[in-house]
Specification:
Number of domains: 1
Distance between the termini: 25 Å
Order of helices and strands: HHHHH
Shape: elongated
Number of strands: 0
Structural class: mainly alpha
Helix content: over 70%
Largest sheet: none
Strand content: under 5%
């Protein structure tokens, strides 16, 4: 294990962020934010079929859901998921800093280490 166990405050933050991300992914999956033309352009830009797009979203939702249920799984998120997680945390950081300043600081440290580790792992594959 690379890190110590998450504190209860860190677990709460991870769960909150995962639930927000899961809600967002479900809206994307259900095409709630796009018109039919937007979806077609998205698929063309990403050179992917609608079925493959939905399969990738389902996999991402499964990872986020698993992390929400067991916050220690944050250590196994890929580079993209970590980036999204950090973006959401930066948006909500002021809210959490009022109640859990140490947890936020330690969680940021963990995320940066995980990101560096993820990037090194990716570089070693090339």
């Amino acid at each position: 294990m690379l890190f110590d166990k998450l504190t209860p405050a860190q677990e709460k933050i991870v769960r909150d962020i995962c639930y927000l991300q899961l809600d967002s992914l479900r809206r994307v999956y259900n095409d709630e934010h796009h018109t039919e033309n937007d979806i077609i352009m998205l698929l063309i830009e990403n050179d992917i079929s609608k079925e493959d797009w939905n399969n990738q979203l389902e996999l991402r939702m499964d990872r986020v859901k698993a992390t929400g249920k067991l916050p220690m799984k944050i250590d196994s998120l890929d580079k993209f998921d970590l980036s999204v997680f950090k973006h959401i945390l930066s948006t909500l950081e002021d809210k959490y800093n009022k109640t859990y300043p140490r947890a936020v600081s330690n969680l940021w440290q963990r995320l940066f280490i995980l990101t560096d580790f993820s990037e090194q792992k990716f570089e070693n594959l090339n």
